[in-house]
Amino acid sequence: MEEPALSPLHEEEILTTLITALRDIFVAHGLIDPQQVRQAHAAQLLDYDPPPVWDCLTLRERTVARLLIKGQANGVIAAKLQIHPQTVRTHIRNIMRKLGVNNRGAAIVLLLQSLVSAELPIHEKHVGE
Questions:
Q1: Which of 4, 45, 66, 104 is deepest in the core (most CB within 10 A)?
Q2: Which stretches within the chain are classed as H helix?
Q3: Domain 8-118: homologous superfamily in CATH
Q4: How many CA atoms lie within 13 A of 9 on its CB side?
Q5: What is the pLDDT of residue 98?
């Protein structure tokens, strides 16, 4: 039996809970300075731009990165964005190069850490939302 699809609102609640839990774990294990979390949260309240980790990425690379950290495979990313799988691989290679990492997992960890410390959403808001 197939699981019912989550509504966008329910998915957003799950992602927010996950990001909050990850942030708390990173703080508890000393991976993120609690002061940085407080500063990032305060900056977000002032309509803060994405952290430098995301700032170096193009809009398309950010879209690919968001799907990557959701665990999407290259083929799924290609289908969702209606691009060739080789183009997805190129975007991922560019993301890894810009982040200074040499594998997909390290890129995902770095991207998640930046989101968790800045409390930024994983999804991208579209015009009109």
A1: 66
A2: 8-28, 34-45, 52-55, 59-69, 74-81, 85-99, 104-118
A3: Response regulator (3.40.50.2300)
A4: 0
A5: 93
- 4-54 pLDDT, tens per residue? 555 555 666 666 677 777 777 777 777 766 666 666 555 554 444 455 788
Cα(82)–Cα(76) distance, rounded to whole angstroms? 10
Does residue 124 contact residue 63 with C-beta atoms inside 8 Å? yes
Half-sphere exposure of 68 (CA within 13 A, CB side): 23
Judging by beta carbons within 10 Å of its beta carbon (0-12, 13-18, 19+), is residue 111 exposed, middle or buried? buried
63-101 per-position pLDDT tens digit:
999 999 888 999 999 999 999 999 999 999 999 999 988
Structure-token pair, residue 126: 């579209």
